[in-house]
Amino acid sequence: MFFKTKDLMTVGNISGGIATILVAMEGMSLPPDAPRDLVASYVFWSGFGILVAYFFDAFDGVVARALNQVNQFGAEFDNVADLVAYSVAPSFLLYFAYRRYVALPGLAELPAVQFAVAVLVALIPTLFGCIRFARFNVRRLDVPALFIGFPRPASALLIVALLNSHLMSVSPWMGWIGVAMVALLGFMNLSLVPFISHHHRVWSWYLKVVLNFVWFSVAASVVLGVFLDWLPRNLAFDWVLFWLCCYLFMGWTDISTETRRRVAVLTGDWNE
């Protein structure tokens, strides 16, 4: 049978993305005068669905190798699941957030413009994610220990982290910064810039330390903030935002000049 036990992890990935979509849709049905804290709660739990999706996504390869169930179907299934969880689902969350939660300075008296911004910003993850999906199906290029272009899971997590971080309450202009960030991530998805990957990578000692602290800080914040309510529940998203911003702006610095030159040769005709 082509469907194996390890594919249940991918089902979990898709389910997390669907949960994000459904919670965002429920949030859109709230009355116009709903308290902001209630709307924020829907934004939070919608974003948390993508954290759940990533949890399953992170372990599907581990389970597949442990059960010796690595196959081509699993690879394709995982790729489609990523499209749902990290491209389509964030679009629903972005539309909901920019329609009901994020106030954009200068547009308070221009609801039609705010609606247009919400539509355009929601279009970006799905549009650019589908282009990336199609491009890699036509011309698959697997470079050990590297992603070509900013990976979709990191983009989705960065989007939901920004929407749910404490930074969103620092200034009303953070809404516009979010628009710029989503646009940047869309273009970085399609860029040919290499980023370090966990696949087949031999980690240097300092990156092992950093990676372990990443997992610990996020996991501890989820347990203590979301499940035990001992810390602010949005703290987990603050950590995700911090670490992924480091990855976005510094994730290529551990790649040698020779490796970047080799990737440039391999991808030289991709934009023709």
Describe the secondary-structure layout.
Elements: H1 7-28, H2 36-66, H3 72-100, H4 111-138, E1 146-148, H5 152-164, H6 174-190, E2 194-196, H7 205-227, H8 235-250, H9 257-266
Antiparallel strand pairs: 1-2
Helix pairs in contact: 1-2, 1-3, 2-3, 2-5, 3-4, 3-5, 4-6, 5-6, 5-8, 7-8
Give a written overview of the molecule:
- The chain has nine helices and two strands.
- The protein has 272 residues and is an all-alpha fold.
- It has one domain (7-266): Four Helix Bundle (Hemerythrin (Met), subunit A) (Up-down Bundle).
- Strands 1-2 form a two-stranded antiparallel ribbon.
- Helix 2 (36-66) packs antiparallel against helix 5 (152-164) and helix 5 crosses helix 8.
- 35% of the residues are buried.
- The model has no long low-confidence stretch (mean pLDDT 89).
Radius of gyration: 19 Å
Pattern of helices and strands: HHHHEHHEHHH
Write down the CATH class.
Mainly Alpha
- What is the overall shape? globular
Structural class: mainly alpha
| Total of helices | 9
Whole-number mean pLDDT: 89
CATH fold field value:
Four Helix Bundle (Hemerythrin (Met), subunit A)
Number of domains: 1
Q: How are the strands of the biggest sheet laid out side by side? A: 1-2
For the record, what is the CATH homologous superfamily label? CDP-alcohol phosphotransferase transmembrane (TM) domain
Low-confidence stretches: none
Main pleated-sheet profile: 2 strands, antiparallel
Provide the CATH architecture: Up-down Bundle
